[in-house]
Design goal:
GO molecular function: glycogen phosphorylase activity; pyridoxal phosphate binding
Number of domains: 3
Radius of gyration: 27 Å
Subcellular location: Cytoplasm
Largest sheet: 10 strands, mixed
Strand content: 15-25%
Cofactor: pyridoxal 5'-phosphate
Number of helices: 33
Enzyme class: transferase
Oligomer: single chain
Distance between the termini: 17 Å
CATH architecture of the largest domain: 3-Layer(aba) Sandwich
Structural class: alpha/beta
EC number: 2.4.1.1
Number of strands: 25
CATH superfamily of the largest domain: Glycogen Phosphorylase B
Bound molecules: pyridoxal-5'-phosphate
């Protein structure tokens, strides 16, 4: 495939604009130029996409399907250009046509079909699969409304709908010929055939048409283009004619509306679970359409009987959200392919692999039996039978575990427990960082681990270094290339060669220069967004992630209030200036999380305008945190706040993005922070606070009393009293809930317990920052070790240990 030069790009875009809009390029808007550029990209992609599909078909390739309710892809224009080897050329072409590349790229709306880490992981995995030439595709939902847009009004989060499809989305292709019907409700009738087998008839169902929209997933400079297939819900037949009964007509409209709700919006809860019926419908809609589609393609392309399904297909389920795919495959094999239970079960349990993302109890999915029975009667019957056989198996073959049946059973206390279903039916169960997998094995899923030790394995998360280094930080990328060449682009572990330069003052200066330029760019962005000037010589200390109690944005705010109080006492305090940067969305129904957002903004409004803190403290809350905002902030960060209560953050991936861009981690020994620590050592990051075992021990045996710390530590008492007495509020009811949560609910996330060590870690970080060369050396060492966290490594491990697929 010939790569296009800047000249080629200019010529093709010009032609497109002339013919499509009948305009001279000079007269075209950024929007028109964006669509022209996307069209040129699509022209390049089309033949590669077709060829990739033909190759998989003709070689009868074994393929992996990544099933996920979320794909947080963000914008694609730049990453598509990068992977096609044309990003620099496109930048040049746009400039020569008289446009700012950035203004053209930002015409594209972020595809925010995910909440946070879990959805972003799915997007990184697709990029790595394609870039490593693996046959692997995503199945998801084409939500008409993605994650809400956040505005901050008077310090409060306000949610606006994210209608991201208002303008045409240039990367998707509607594939009506691949549509299929998904059925809900109805009556299941069984009758015995002459030969004794059962025939299942599922009648009087509500039918929904699932129409796929395909998005190409372009590999990095390798001509592989895989597919992300996103399902949209539509009425099965066209609209009725409007000539007849009015009532009938409106009833029908109502019905169509309720169908379209199925792919209407993304649930905005991250790491928490809501037992809403519409969410259950969405889950079944995704898995039924996807599994039907896999079987259809398998039969068409491979011409094998369903017995051979596990040889050609492996399905990875991203958390339990798509775990109804298990009974759905059983249903198809038995009811449509006429296999018996044992054969169907044998096939099913060789196909599924399950990734667990959390041990937070509030995030574990369970569905009320009654809801599932009504909505999915046949699926419920199958789960019931899986459960029955599983429990019998324990009763007869694992007598020592008989008394554990209530905590192992898939159906118990009127609920269907989805994680248990996923474990029982999968040949692989993985956690997402070493510490998380160990907690699963030893605590959360101990009983299952004892039953099936061979199923449990770890796959530490990763991020695509193509987007999160090469695309977002071109200056750092080209500096690294100048110093160690570009082998690391294909083998990110080679970044380790940077270590040779850790004592090279000249090199360290160059890294410092790049960071400063990135900081200046972010400072300009902040000024333009918020009208606030930040000191580009101050320490950029960043915490961007979903707002959740366990992530402890509150600990960060307490530190800021502490510094503020210190400065008020002593305005001449010798202190390196700091800029604290936040970005975070709270689930709309998460009251305490919203209070923390309000608190951050309130503290910002006080600190930013106080003469005693002038030039020393700034607090910035950037609204609407999403992938594109992360891309702007991360290259400029110096301190990466990864301060979750130990044992709570399964892995984290933000931590990896920061490390790869040279920020130093201020963190607890949690999730993948532990693995960063294993690589760079404690001398190259700032570790503080309770360890996971200590936290788990407190939860189990008690012994922590937040009130004691309040009583003993003046700094802590001062801060809490400020929250309680209205010093940070326009009226004194504000922030009382935070105060009560800490003192009357005994600080469930150990904010007070970790306060002092956190302050000390920050004091140490400040002292290191004064030694510029030392800081730069630490930063370089972090970048050098960050190759491990490329999702290419993660995907290679999934391939070797779970998927057993071959590159093409
Ligand atoms: C990487 C990323 C996340 C995950 O961040 P954590 O710090 O690991 O929670 C969430 N949202 C967006 C937009 C991201 O890019």
């Amino acid at each position: 495939m010939k790569r296009l030069t800047a000249e080629d790009l200019k010529a093709r875009m010009t032609t497109y604009i002339n013919t499509t809009y009948r305009l001279d390029v000079k007269e075209a808007t950024e929007e028109e130029v964006f669509y022209a550029l996307a069209a040129v990209v699509n022209e390049q992609v089309k033949p590669l996409w077709d060829k990739t599909n033909e190759r998989y078909k003709s070689e009868q390739t074994r393929q992996v399907y990544y099933l996920s309710m979320e794909f947080l892809i963000g914008r694609l224009i730049e990453s598509n250009l990068l992977n096609l080897g044309m990003l620099k050329e496109a930048n040049q072409a746009l400039q020569e046509l008289g446009f700012q590349a950035e203004d053209v790229f930002t015409v594209e709306q972020d595809a925010a079909l995910g909440n946070g880490g879990l959805g972003r992981l799915a997007a990184c995995f697709l990029d790595s699969l394609a870039s490593l030439n693996y046959p692997g595709h995503g199945y998801g939902i084409r939500y008409r409304y993605g994650l809400f847009e956040q505005r901050i009004i008077h310090g409060n989060q306000v949610e606006l709908p994210d209608y991201w499809l208002k303008k045409p989305y240039p990367w998707e292709v509607r594939r009506e010929e691949e549509a299929c019907v998904v059925q809900f409700q109805g009556i299941v009738r069984m009758h015995q055939r002459r030969n004794g087998s059962l025939e299942i008839n599922h009648e009087h169902t509500d039918k929904v048409l699932a129409v796929p929209y395909d998005v190409p997933v372009i590999g990095y400079e390798n001509e592989t283009v895989n597919t992300l297939r996103l399902w949209s819900a539509e009425p099965v037949s066209g609209a009725p004619d409007n000539s007849g009964d009015q009532e009938e007509f409106y009833h029908h409209l109502d019905f169509e509306h309720s169908i379209e709700q199925l792919s209407g919006f993304l649930y905005p809860d991250d790491s928490s679970y809501e037992g809403k019926e519409l969410r259950l419908k969405q889950q079944y809609f995704l898995v039924s359409a996807s599994v039907q589609n896999m079987i259809k393609q398998f039969k068409k392309n491979y011409r094998l009987s369903s017995k051979h399904f596990p040889e050609k297909i492996v399905i990875q389920i991203n958390d339990t959200h798509p775990s109804l795919s298990i009974p759905e495959l059983m249903r198809i094999l038995m009811d449509e392919e006429d296999l018996g239970w044992d054969e169907a079960w044998e096939i099913t349990t060789r196909v599924f692999a399950y990734t667990n993302h959390t041990t937070l109890s509030e995030a574990l999915e369970t569905w009320p039996i009654a809801m599932m029975q009504k909505l999915l009667p046949r699926i419920y019957m199958i789960i019931d039978e899986i459960n029955e056989r599983f429990c019998q198996g324990i009763w007869f073959d694992h007598k020592e575990k008989r008394d554990k049946i209530p905590e192992l059973a898939i159906i118990a206390d009127e609920q269907v427990h989805m994680a248990r279903l996923a474990i029982v039916a999968s040949f692989s169960v993985n956690g997402v960082a070493n510490i998380h997998t160990e907690i699963l094995k030893k605590k959360e899923m101990k009983e299952f681990h004892e039953l099936y030790p061979e199923r449990f394995n770890n796959k530490t998360n990763g991020i695509t270094h193509r987007r999160w280094l090469m695309q977002v930080n071109p200056k750092l990328t080209s500096l690294i290339q100048d110093i160690i060449g570009d082998q690391w682009v294909k083998r990110p572990k080679q970044l380790i060669s940077l270590l040779r330069f850790q004592h090279d003052k000249d090199v360290l200066e160059q890294f410092a220069k790049v960071k400063n330029e990135n900081k200046l760019a972010l400072a300009n962005f902040i000024h333009q967004q918020m009208g606030i000037t930040v000191d580009d010589q101050s320490i950029f200390d960043v915490q961007i992630k979903r707002l959740h109690e366990y992530k402890r944005q509150l600990l960060n705010v307490f530190h800021i209030i502490y510094l503020y109080n210190e400065l008020k006492e002593n305005p001449n305090l010798d202190m390196t200036p700091r800029t604290f940067i936040f970005g975070a969305k709270a689930a709309p129904s998460y009251h305490l999380a919203k209070e923390v957002i309000k608190l951050i903004n309130t503290v910002a409004s006080i600190v930013n305008y106080d003469k005693d803190t002038k030039g020393k403290l700034k607090v910035i809350f950037l609204e609407n945190y999403n992938v594109s905002l992360a891309e702007k902030i991360i290259p400029a960060a110096e301190i990466s706040e990864q301060i979750s209560t130990a044992s709570k953050e399964a892995s984290g991936t933000g931590n990896m993005k920061f490390m790869m861009n040279g920020a130093l981690t201020m963190g607890t020994m949690d999730g993948a922070n532990v693995e960063i620590y294993d690589l760079v050592g404690e001398e190259n990051m700032f570790i503080f606070g309770l360890r996971a075992e200590e936290v788990l021990d407190y939860y189990q045996h008690g012994g922590y009393h937040a009130r004691d710390i309040y009583n003993k530590d003046d700094r802590v008492r001062r801060i809490l009293d400020q929250l309680n007495n209205g010093e940070f509020g326009t009226h004194d009811i504000e922030f009382k809930d935070i105060y009560y949560n800490i003192l009357y609910h005994n600080d469930p996330y150990f904010v007070l317990k970790d306060f002092e060590p956190y302050i000390e870690a920050h004091e140490y970080a400040e002292s290191v920052y004064r030694d510029k060369m030392k800081w730069q050396r630490m930063s370089l060492i972090n970048i050098a070790h960050s190759g491990k966290f490329s999702s290419d490594r993660t995907i290679q491990e999934y391939v070797n240990d779970i998927w057993k697929i071959n590159p093409t």
